């Protein structure tokens, strides 16, 4: 929907107070997307689009950098360096699963990456168990495991009626399941003596 879609997101922000995180697909679109979004997302397919990484590095907005589907941890961190090198130090890394030989799940969620990033970098890392598994029934256990592994946040897809979602319905939680998960996450974070929102 291009700019009209961005305008709808801005309206939703005004109505709810929620911040907008949305994907930017190419360097030519960075200025437009940055005019509406609070955080620019670089999707897994663009993790190694170095012109785009440099452009978001210059835009002044925080960047959510998703791990490429076949990227090593070192390659992911090197991609972040392109953003940091342009003077933008507000980078959030997102583990969203990598491609392996496993076919039951959409991807293989690499939770060892959370500990590795915490050891190798100062950057915050969040986990996306929705894309990481592709199955809503696996979102809760993987979200809980991500919190236990030290993730700084979660990216979870929610839809009022996942069966009718135009995309990603099989990996989306309904609002009741999401609310129950957030309660469990808060309890786990408290048990682990970690802060949660």
Automatic annotation (TrEMBL):
GO terms for biological process: aromatic amino acid family biosynthetic process. Keywords: Transferase. Pfam families: DAHP_synth_1 (PF00793). Residues 2-187 form the DAHP synthetase I/KDSA domain. InterPro entries: Aldolase_TIM, Class-I_DAHP_synthase, DAHP1/KDSA, DAHP_syn_2. GO terms for molecular function: aldehyde-lyase activity; transferase activity. PANTHER family: PHOSPHO-2-DEHYDRO-3-DEOXYHEPTONATE ALDOLASE, PROTEIN AROA(G). This is Phospho-2-dehydro-3-deoxyheptonate aldolase. It comes from Thermosinus carboxydivorans Nor1. The lineage of its organism: Bacteria, Bacillati, Bacillota, Negativicutes, Selenomonadales.
